[in-house]
Known about the structure:
Layout: H1 15-24, H2 26-45, E1 51-58, H3 64-69, H4 79-87, H5 89-96, E2 103-108, E3 113-115, E4 122-128, E5 138-144, E6 147-153, E7 159-165, E8 169-171, E9 175-181, H6 187-192, E10 197-201, H7 204-212, E11 215-221, E12 226-233, H8 236-293, H9 306-337, H10 343-349, H11 356-376, H12 385-431, H13 437-471, E13 478-481, H14 494-518, H15 526-532, E14 536-542, H16 562-577, E15 584-590, H17 597-610, E16 615-619, H18 627-631, H19 639-643, H20 649-652, E17 654-655, E18 661-664, H21 673-678, H22 680-692, E19 695-699, H23 710-715, E20 718-724, H24 733-741, E21 749-755, H25 757-760, E22 773-776, E23 779-782, H26 793-800, H27 803-810
Parallel strand pairs: 14-21, 15-19, 15-20, 16-18, 16-19, 20-21
Antiparallel strand pairs: 1-12, 1-13, 2-3, 2-10, 4-9, 5-6, 5-10, 6-7, 8-9, 11-12, 17-18, 22-23
Amino acid sequence: MAIRKISNINDELDFKLFFFIAKKNIFIAFFIISIAIITAFIYLRYTLPLYETSTLVQLNTDNQANKILGTESIYEDDLAKKIELLKSPVFLQRVFSKLPLKISYYNEGRFLNYELYKNFPYNIEVNVKSSSIYSIPIFIKTIKNNKYEISYTLANHTKVEKSFNINEEAIFNELNIKVSPNANLMQSNFSASETGSFFVVNDPNSIVPTYSKQLTISVLSEAAKTILIKFNDNNPQKASDIVNTISDEFNAYDLEKKAESANKILDFIDGQLEIVYDNLYKSETDLINFKKSNNIDSNDIKPLPTVYSRINDFGNQIVKLELEDNILSEIDNTIKKNKDLDVYKLIAIMAGSEFQGTISNLLNSLQEQLMKKEQLLYEVTANSGQIEAINYQIEIQKKLLMESVKTLKNNITSRKADLNQKLEGYQLTVNTGKGNYNTLELSRLQRLYTINEKFYNQLIEKKAEYSISKAGYVSQNIILQRSIAPAQPISPNKKTIYLSSILIGFILSLLLVIIRYLFYNDILDLNDIRKYTNAAILGIVPKYEKNIPVSQLLVDKNPKSLIAESLRTIRSNLQFISNEPGSKVIAITSTISGEGKTFVSINLAGIIAFSDNKVIIIDLDMRKPKIHLGFGAENKSGMSTILSGKDKIDDCIQQSEIKNLHFITAGPIPPNPSELILGKKMNELVDYLKTIYDFVIIDNPPVGIVSDGMSSIQSADYPIYVLKADYSKRGYIQNINRLINESKIYKLSIILNSVQIEDSGYGYAKKSGMDRIFKSGNGIGYGYSYGYGYYDEEKEDVVKKPLLKRIKKFFNL
């Protein structure tokens, strides 16, 4: 069979190995998941909850009065403009001024401070003298029933502390404070506030920027014109109050602006009524006086020719043009003289004029620039580049507006001149007639009176219309959903956090298992050995589940145990390596200490001794002797004293609990164990023992650490290399291949020790003889599904264990 190269990473998917590593790391996985859950608990415990509140507003621009009168709305609606209005600092300043946000109240906790919005046991009134007090925690506690103590620490670490009576004004350098009990709260709350309560005076200039970051305004449906207003805060009641106040103030603002426009139009109409009434009164007086002076009776007035009708028309047009000219003059003077323009007033003045559409567009553009400037002034200084750019745009709009007004005035002047020229022509024609002077004058006076009367009635009619329209101004915006203080926070979500922590813990555990799987380099079962060597495999030794302090003889105590059965299989397999008559030498070694070579040596010797063979085991690991510990014997003399010539062989042989099993301990640790082992006396000792015993078992030092035992391994009839499952590294197999190929130890065979039977798939069924014999590259491998169907107390425990104990055993508990 081809030998594979040993890799440091597992590049093949082995489910058996994967589940083995997962089982081995189950406690670490539980620990990681537990840490994740504990971390989630701490996060939830010490994170302030965040609540979200919302309100829904629907825009509606219908005005029933306008519908009845057939007038157009002077307050146009635009969804995008309304959104910008709601977000504007000017509007938010108006909203927040309606709420108790100037002072924030808190209850001090060990790690977190909880805001007591509308739930503070004191009524606090402050008069700030210095801005250094802003955002500084001011602690308050009750000393007695009628006294309280105020203390705070400034930014320069100056601590201020004073006591005052309730309802007495406390005077400090930074502010004045007046404290009174909150009668709306229970007395228990007042008592509980004796310690750990404080308040913070907020900077008025920071309220809008701070809370606007927590505000979200969006269009829910353009077709339905619905606006969704959301606000997030750690206090649910405060968040609910803010969104409700925004919706209420939005409706109030909408109504105020509509009423403001109507009021300005009505103010203009009232001003014009006074002027027109004076003109009407004067024209009426002149007409009456003229009739009296010329003894003209109303019944004597005869219809005038058509020429007089034309004169009246021209006169009416001239009066109308003069009125529009006055309006343009008023607009021009307002733009030139006033820096702070009231655009709505100018729009109201132009109502009904011929040039209203042209000038209104320019005024609206100017108004937009003025609003942008007003909003920017809340964010930047008056000298900033943004303000200068806005001012430049405003000046351009003003110039365009003034040029338009100038052009319109020139047009009106030209039209008036043309009308006056025509009027003079008609008057000249009339004056050339005989006896018509009184009639012409009478006609002129009647015409002026009629014009003034008509204009006056028209103003009265418009005033009535706009008065009715104003009365019909109720905000048509509908609050579809008002906010209620939520009971559950949106963050942190307990269920999500806990599930996420468990998932993260599981993923980390899985990554740990995957990483350990990829870099797992231990020998787990015989398949790992077969992949990398052609050495013969004698068999396996199951893992002994109980803890033993040292390697010791077990097969005599439990002769029917799995360990005993596996060693009997190994004993049987030895005959296939060498079946020649005579005494045999078994040399056992390993790569490093801890792989169980001494345990295998002692118990294999016991199993062989049970078959009526005389067996002796010698401890050649003189650097780290263990045989004497396994048999509970003294180590005063042994191999070191024999090889150094201090003691005789027979004097150092000791009897074990088994009749045919003897042993020689390592003896005192010598300074030169290599020289003693490689000396001639070692060979003489082995030859002498072979004359007395059927099997001589040598417990050699690990060849991966020292080479002391190489000579005995090379000369042994049965050289055995012990590996330990889930302990020995795959790289140790290279030592086996080197011993076979370089040291020419072709009979070298392997025993895999401490195999977990339940995980390995090995079992002992009631079969007679060997299952199979197979050839390998450098030796013969033998099957070991062999046994007699016995089980001892140890196996009986496995069968009869309760379910809980079996689960514990599965998880190595």
